[in-house]
UniProtKB/TrEMBL annotation, chain A:
This is DNA-binding response regulator. InterPro entries: CheY-like_superfamily, OmpR/PhoB-type_DNA-bd, Sig_transdc_resp-reg_receiver, WalR-like, WH-like_DNA-bd_sf. Gene3D superfamilies: 3.40.50.2300, 6.10.250.690, Winged helix-like DNA-binding domain superfamily/Winged helix DNA-binding domain. SMART domains: REC (SM00448), Trans_reg_C (SM00862). Residues 123-219 bind DNA.
From TrEMBL, chain B:
It is found in: Membrane. Residues 186-237 form the HAMP domain. InterPro entries: 2CSK_N (IPR013727), HAMP_dom (IPR003660), HATPase_C_sf (IPR036890), HATPase_dom (IPR003594), His_kinase_dom (IPR005467), HisK_dim/P_dom (IPR003661), HisK_dim/P_sf (IPR036097), Sig_transdc_His_kin-like_C (IPR004358). It comes from the Bacteria. Gene3D superfamilies: 1.10.287.130, Histidine kinase-like ATPase, C-terminal domain. It comes from Marivita lacus. Keywords: Kinase, Membrane, Phosphoprotein, Transferase, Transmembrane, Transmembrane helix, Two-component regulatory system. SMART domains: HATPase_c (SM00387), HisKA (SM00388). GO terms for molecular function: kinase activity. This is histidine kinase.
């Protein structure tokens, strides 16, 4: 997926770019509306993350202006949280909004929800052994069978799929899977991994336990 | 009358007072004139009558003689049915008529001038006309005094009749004047009322200047009203800009802190360090959430005073709010199940969305992962109920009423970020719409049910 992040705060932008890059997304960063225009002129994006207050104008005005010719879904990042602002952002053509400061897991969940709602245009399916995993639709296709996964299973499988062959520690997986404030122990990861193993059983891909270090996904042929 | 009484009523009363005064004055004048006219008529006839009698006086063999002409009395009978008396005398000698009829004692010249007087005779008021004439009795000229008197019943009845007519006309005039003044007051105040209506019809945030034709007298009022609206709009805008700018200035660095802390959390190896980073993130969340809800609460309080009620389809509202929280729920694998009912409601959509979102957000927050939250919309006889049930730990054992008070949180909320304002906001919104928020722990402690109750419109 290719994202465009329009945000004038350099540190925040970097953090968001890094985080989204971890999930395998390519993110271009524009620090102003003018830069955003330039980016939009030369590249196709799957999703735009748009700050409201930018040095050269209001993000919502930009949205209202460009909505007519802009097909790309937009999530508004706003520090204004008043009810009327939320409604306003959606009225002006935003697909969703997220209030600063935000949880990365929530940002990601909202991106996923928006992309799923807009649906269809850009699929990034991942081949896992004999199965095809569609993280956006949240399902696994294996032969004629389509298995719907729960949200956490999807995210867990996505981490494994994007880091095939790498060892992932339990705490790495925890950070990826749970919002920081969920009081979970590492046992929870064992439960989810166990569940995911049963889901992908016999699909030519498995999750190995690396004693003392964590887990690793391997395709059977390899 | 107080200084703040209605201008319309004041104007009407003032004009009615003037009309009443004029009516009484005109009645009094008409009555007086009528009486005068009647009296003058009687005097003229009495004068003619007495003169006629006096002209028949003659002397015959040294004696004064007279013939009472019939016409002298018939002309008196022509104006009324009043009784007529007469008296003819020379000096102290009574000749004919009513001897005891009072006569003017003053010396009357014999020039034929008629003297009028008013007196009482046989218990009735009478008008008397007296004339004196010299008659030659033998060689001696004798002054003969002729008096004709008539009671005044006719004059009184004529003037009473006229006065009654005048009174009747005055009352009619008064009534017409009062209704005209009420009409005039209403008509001249109409532009003022129209302006008032136009202002009160407006929503709380509509501060556009008034553009309507107004009479010249109201132009200064309109101008100052528009100037006030303009200033109000400017100060609201600058307050909003300030809040937005302040929120932006505070929240953007907070967002950076949070993002960096989350990245640090990811790479931290030491459990102790991780715990500290989590606490840091929690503090950031706590402060930003409180700030957000305080602003929401202020919005609710501000808008509750003057609800912008719009007819909306309930299912659209619920669906939209639920869709907004779907990703949050998905993060915990919580399913949001909606049991919908079709129907329209008259509510402020911004506030209702806010109330429902707060209740739903609570349900999601306090639910264990992989459970269901049910949103059931149903309609009773007089109310519409939106019941949000979760499978969480229930409300705890504190008093339920306390939970909807500002900054109060339940007894079993440890470890969950919250400001203690969510349910207060929901309750305030519902109360403003004439509804209420019901909270209960489901039987067997199997969760909580929060119901948003709205009166059906």
């Amino acid at each position: 997926m290719r994202y465009l992040l329009v945000e004038d705060n350099q540190e925040l932008a970097e953090a968001v770019v890094n985080r989204l890059a971890l999930d395998g997304h390519a993110v271009d960063h524009a620090a102003s509306l003018a830069e955003a225009e330039d980016c939009l002129a030369v590249a196709q994006y799957d999703l735009i993350l748009l700050d409201v207050m930018l040095p050269d104008g209001d993000g919502r005005d930009f949205l209202a202006r460009s909505r007519a010719h802009l097909e790309t879904p937009v999530i508004v990042l706003t520090a204004r949280s008043q009810v009327s602002d939320r409604v306003g952002a959606l009225d002006q053509g935003a697909d969703d909004y997220i209030t600063k400061p935000f949880d990365f897991s929530e940002l990601e969940a909202r991106c996923r929800a928006v992309l799923r709602r807009r649906g269809g245009e850009a699929r990034n399916e991942i081949h896992l052994g004999d199965a095809v995993f569609d993280p956006l639709a949240g399902n696994l296709r294996f032969g004629a069978e389509t298995i719907d996964l729960r949200n956490r299973e999807i995210r867990l499988l996505e981490v494994f799929a994007r880091h095939k062959g790498q060892i992932l520690s339990k705490s790495q997986l925890m950070d990826r899977l749970f919002s920081y404030d969920a009081e979970v122990t590492e046992n929870a990861i064992e439960v989810y991994v166990g569940r995911l193993r049963r889901r992908i059983d016999g699909m030519g891909v498995r999750i190995e336990t690396v004693r003392g270090l964590g887990y690793r996904m391997e395709t059977t042929e390899a | 009358m107080t200084g703040t009484a209605s201008i319309g009523r004041r104007l009407t009363l003032l004009l009615a007072g003037v009309a009443a005064l004029l009516s009484v004055l005109s009645w009094w004048m008409v009555t007086g004139l009528a009486r005068q006219a009647a009296e003058r008529t009687q005097d003229n006839v009495l004068a003619a009558s007495v003169t006629t009698i006096a002209e028949t006086l003659r002397s015959e063999q040294g004696e004064v003689r007279l013939e009472l002409p019939y016409s002298a009395f018939s002309m008196l009978g022509a104006i009324s049915e009043d009784r007529v008396f007469y008296r003819v005398a020379t000096g102290d000698t009574f000749l004919t008529g009513y001897d005891d009829l009072p006569v003017p004692t003053e010396q009357i010249s014999s020039g034929g001038r008629v003297i009028f007087d008013t007196g009482v005779y046989s218990g009735e008021e009478v008008r008397m006309a007296t004339v004196s004439r010299l008659v030659l009795a033998g060689t001696q000229p004798v002054s003969v005094k002729v008096t004709v008197a008539q009671t005044r019943g006719g004059v009184a009845s004529i003037s009473a009749e006229l006065s009654q007519l005048a009174a009747f006309l005055s009352v009619a005039f008064f009534l017409v004047a009062v209704s005209l003044s009420a009409f005039a007051a209403r008509t001249s105040l109409k532009p003022l009322n129209e302006i008032a209506a136009a202002v009160s019809r407006r929503g709380p945030s509509d501060l556009r200047p008034l553009r309507r034709a107004a009479p010249t007298e109201l132009a200064p009022l309109m101008t100052s009203l528009n100037r006030l609206m303009d200033r109000l709009g400017q100060s609201i805008r600058s307050a909003e800009d300030f809040i937005a700018e302040a929120a932006h200035r505070i929240r953007t660095p907070l967002a950076t802190v949070r993002a960096q802390a989350e990245i640090a959390l990811r790479s931290a190896k030491d459990e102790d360090q991780k715990q500290r980073l989590r606490q840091m993130i929690r503090a950031v969340d706590e402060s930003s959430r409180s700030a957000g809800q305080l602003l929401d609460h202020a919005t609710v309080v501000y808008r509750s005073d003057d609800l912008v009620r719009t007819p909306i389809t309930l299912s659209d509202l619920v669906r939209q709010t639920v869709a907004g929280l779907e990703p949050t729920a998905a993060m915990k694998d919580i399913r949001l199940q909606v049991e919908m009912m079709e129907g329209k409601v008259q509510v402020d959509p911004v506030l209702m969305d806010n109330a429902l979102r707060n209740v739903l957000d609570n349900a999601i927050k306090y639910s264990p992962p992989e459970t269901d939250v049910t949103i059931a919309v149903s309609a009773g006889d007089s109310e519409i109920r939106i019941a949000v049930s979760d499978q969480g730990a229930g409300l705890g054992d504190g008093p339920v009423d306390m939970l909807t008070q500002r900054f109060q949180r339940g007894t079993n909320t440890q470890g969950v970020v919250g400001s203690g304002l969510g349910l207060t906001i929901a309750k305030d919104v519902l109360v403003a719409h004439g509804g209420r928020l019901e909270l209960e722990t489901l039987e067997g402690n199997k969760g909580t049910c929060a119901t948003l109750v709205l009166p059906s419109s």
